[in-house]
Each structure stands twice: as C-alpha cells, then as structure tokens.
C-alpha cells in the first residue's frame, strides 16, 4: 500500500496513485481509470488458510450460508448464531434464496447467504452465485475491503469446493475485495 492513499468516492474504493506507480500498473491492466486522476485498483484475491474463522478476524466482515428459515442448528451456523445472535433481525429482513441478510456488529458486517428455503434442503450453484452477487453489491456499497468465510456450501450442504471457488472468483474478480477462506 506504499505510494497511494485509499479513500471512498461514489461508494467505490478508489485510490490516488502517484504518476510512476500508475504507469507501472496500467500496462498490466491492474487498474481501471475512473475520473481524472482517480483509479480503481483491481486487487481481488482468495486466500485459503487453516484455523478458526472467529480468531483474529474481529475487524473483518464474515459470511456463511444459511436457509431462509434461519434455523442455524448444525455446523458452523451454530457458532455464528451463538456469537452474533440476531435470528429475529435476519427473519425481519424477509430474504429469499439468492438474497443476503446482513447484520452490523461493531465495525463490521456479518453476511448470511440465503442459499435455500429450508434447513433440510440443499443449495444449488445458481442460488449460491445469486447470493454472492447480492453480498458483492452490499460490500461495494459500503467499501468493504475483506470478507472471511468457511468453505461456503461445502460442509453439510455438499457443494464441491473447486466449483464454489470458481464462482467466488467469477463474482468478485472485478473488485478489490480480499476473500479469506478458513478450513477447520
């Protein structure tokens, strides 16, 4: 981050980059011109790591998959329910599969990716893509820089991580949001 200053303009993370740094990255297509000397950095990344999703991520937004009925009775959802509560807040948002429910906790957002109607149903890759797009819109609107999550949809829901990772990449590739995926 040396050599440029981050600030928010028009709900997008933008950067003012010194002339020599701008020229260096422009040739690689790593930045997109916005207006005047403002540019948007495309520095999307997915990092996979082992560890506890809830340790050391106090200022990072979090995300995980749930059903529309907001049961959260198994898997990592139990930990989210215990740590953040908000079941009625989520229900009051009246989100459908393909939408995202959002809780504000401290200085971060907790994203509840609604991928199915009932807890015993299985999600589809289409519902996952749709809810990730909804999360992306919210994250861009609020200048979110990083989101930590488990291997979403791949535990009890049974989706294949390689395909989920491709969808994550496709949805977020045109942003500068960092995705950190935790494996327990």
TrEMBL record:
- Please, which domain of life does this record's source organism belong to? Eukaryota
- CDD domains xref list: Macro_Poa1p-like
The secretion signal range is: none
Q: Name one GO biological process term.
A: peptidyl-glutamate ADP-deribosylation
List the InterPro entries hit by this protein, alphabetically.
Answer: ADP-ribose_metab_enzymes, Macro_dom, Macro_dom-like
- Domain (Macro) spans 33-184
Q: TM spans, by residue?
A: none
What protein name is recorded for this chain? Macro domain-containing protein
Its lineage reads: Eukaryota, Metazoa, Ecdysozoa, Arthropoda, Crustacea
């Amino acid at each position: 981050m040396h050599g440029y200053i981050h600030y928010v303009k028009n709900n997008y993370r933008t950067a003012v980059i010194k002339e020599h740094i701008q020229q260096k990255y422009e040739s690689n297509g790593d930045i997109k011109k916005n207006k005047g000397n403002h540019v948007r950095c495309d520095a999307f990344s997915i990092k996979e790591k082992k560890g506890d999703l809830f340790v050391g991520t106090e200022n990072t937004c979090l995300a995980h998959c749930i059903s529309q009925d907001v049961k959260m009775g198994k898997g990592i959802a139990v930990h989210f329910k215990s740590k953040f509560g908000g079941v009625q807040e989520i229900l009051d948002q009246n989100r459908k599969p393909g939408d995202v429910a959002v809780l504000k906790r401290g200085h971060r957002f907790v994203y509840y990716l609604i991928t199915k109607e009932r807890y015993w149903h299985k999600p589809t890759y289409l519902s996952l893509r749709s809810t990730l797009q909804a999360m992306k819109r919210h994250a861009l609107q609020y200048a979110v820089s990083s989101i930590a999550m488990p291997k979403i949809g791949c535990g009890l829901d049974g989706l294949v991580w390689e395909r989920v990772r491709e969808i994550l990449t496709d949805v977020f590739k045109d942003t500068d949001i960092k995705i950190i995926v935790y494996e327990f």
